[in-house]
Amino acid sequence: MWGELAHSLQHANGYVIAIVVLGFLATVVFFERLIMLQFVYNVDFTKFLGNLRKMVAAEDLDRAITLCRNTASTSLPRIAMRALEAAETDPTKVRGTIEEEAIDFLPNIERRLGLLPAFTLLIMLVGILGTIDSLWGAFQSIDVLDTARKQATLAQGIASSLNPTAIGLLFGMIMLAGYYLLKGMAVSLVERVHYGVAVLSNLLVPQDAFAYVTATGDGQAPSANYEKASEEFSAPKEEPTGDAAESESFDDVSVEDIKDEEEII
Question: pLDDT digit string (tens) for 193-208?
């Protein structure tokens, strides 16, 4: 089998060349994604977040920004750097900055991963198409041969026609295994980035939320507004005087007269 595959690669037809080209493109995508997921986007999240917690607790935002810049120019360090810069300029924009940067970065993790299943399917389909074409050629060639050579030619044609399918399946299995490997790495990275975003929100957003709550209303704290409303509710009402008192007594008399008339009826 392997000797036949090597011979088919050496004397490749158009279908085998197409399979090799598609396999090369899929290999380039695989290694590009592997480098990005393993060496560019992936950092030591535990160590990075631990150092960031210490610096934020000490209110040393300049060192925290320097830490983010020196760790990586993308992934969670970039999100943290943007959030720290927003905390220095306008703390009310910290939550929005974290959400914007996270939404902008997360699609990069699975970018071009969908090309690997597409290449795998194309490679196998091209192999099957090469096999069908070779079979047609083998069956058509026996029409012009004599009876003694028909059996040998047909057997050789069928055997060689299976080479494109075998090569396509071989490339397809390798690319499919690589795709699931990268998919697992991407899912793990997305989960760690979500955890890091939650840690950043807990570190930076509470100060922003407290400042927003205390600045609501007429510049007073919510408890002060509540006490003011309670005092107004509990204050005694003034008794009506003058015309107001007469109108109220008139209303009371009118109501009593109407009740008496209803009883009479």
Answer: 999 999 998 888 755 4
Distance of CA 123 to the CA centre of its chain: 29
List of residues 6+ apart from 48 with CB closer than 8 A? 67, 71, 76, 77, 196
Place of tokens 């396999």: 23
> Using a CB cutoff of 8 Å and minimum separation of 24, what contacts does 95-100 make?
95/201, 95/205, 95/208, 98/197, 98/200, 98/201, 98/204, 98/205
The token pair at 164 is 């494109």
> DSSP labels for 89-146?
H-GGGHHHHHHHHHHHHHHHHTTTTTHHHHHHHHHHHHHHHHHHHHHHHHHHHGGGS-
Question: Which tokens is 243 given?
Answer: 């015309």
For the record, the structure tokens of 165 come out as: 């399918």
Tokens of residue 67, six digits? 């830490």
Distance of alpha carbon 185 from the chain centroid: 13
pLDDT (tens digit, 9 = 90+) per residue, 151-200? 666 677 777 778 888 889 999 999 999 999 999 999 999 999 999 999 99
